[in-house]
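debug: dumping io for the single-chain case to check the tokenizer round-trip. Nothing else runs in this session.
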Amino acid sequence: MKTNLLLLSTVSLLLTACSIKNIQKENDTNTTNTQETNLTTTTHLRHNTEAPIVSSSDTPTPPDTMVLPTIETNQEVAGGLTGEFANNPLLSYFIERMHTEHGFDYDYLYKLFSNAHNSDYVDIPCDTNSDSSKNCNVTLKPKGKWDRYKGMFVYERNINRGVAFWNEHEQTLNRAYKEYGVLPEYIMGILGIETAYGVNFGKKRVIDVLTTKAMLGDKREAFYTDQLEKFLLMARQSNLDAATLMGSSAGAMGYGQFIPSSYLTFAVDFNGDGVTDLWNAEDAIGSVANYFSQNGWNRNISQVAVRAKYKGNRFKRLKTGYKTKYSQYKLRKKYGIKARKKLHYKGPVSLIKLPKHGYDELWFGTHNFRVITTYNHSTFYGMAVVVLGNKVKNRRYGK
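debug: decoded output
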């Protein structure tokens, strides 16, 4: 009897030990599977997003915590994204949002983005013999900062191109002035600086540039994601092919180099053909004029910038730049600074300093000069628009 009891106890202990071992093995397997799942998920979420995500109110949730859209019910569509941006979680989220919020077709979006390329891998060298690179036309490099900047845009070939463009589109420029009050020379200045009157629209596909900057961790990711959204809306609205549109390395487009948000806000169908196309000169002229008008251009102020005089060769007495505003009376009475010719504008002026090789030029900028700098927040840019536009005007009219 004792022998039987002992045998039963031994068997029971062995069965218990085996059960415990099996449970531990099952737990270890589950733990390993969980760790592998977590690792796979983390790796998936960080694919192509190694750079920090910009923190802002309109930035997508960072990859480590974002809740991706549920697309398991549409696996045949989700599997359609191939190419350099395949498995990018931000792009998957963006595609789902464009479909849900704006009604874009899945097949269209996956085909478009499957053929997009990382624009950072494309290096466009400067060809000094090419007419299409506006920054390659500088043969002389004076020491003055203003001379160097101006030389990139104000040169003989560009002035002559401007005259030819004005001659060809004189009626459109005059109509833009009549409707918006913007003098032709300042529209000409913008078009000459931005694309050398259509010679250089840009050498990169806009879809490549915006997708790269929006989905691969650019420090302005939120901005470029917004621009990518507006680019698709713009292309659909204007019946343009988003896959073929060319632009700058920042995604700017057309004669006036509008970014997509500006395209949607300011671009106009100025030739009335039913399509707003900023690669069309007429639409571009009307759109630049509309941009200035919407940003406060005053048609009653014909003078944009007037040269001023002061004592000395270098000016350091006051703060300068397009943001400054000074009373003309105070500048004249207290500092002895006054316009070199009659300035009919009575409002506050910006004090503009242009450092040249041997001295500083000083200019007064009127209200409309400050409007020009809304196009590009730069004093030099605003003055380049003024100088180039007036050079083209004077050459055209033989002055």
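debug: round-trip ok. The mean pLDDT is 82.
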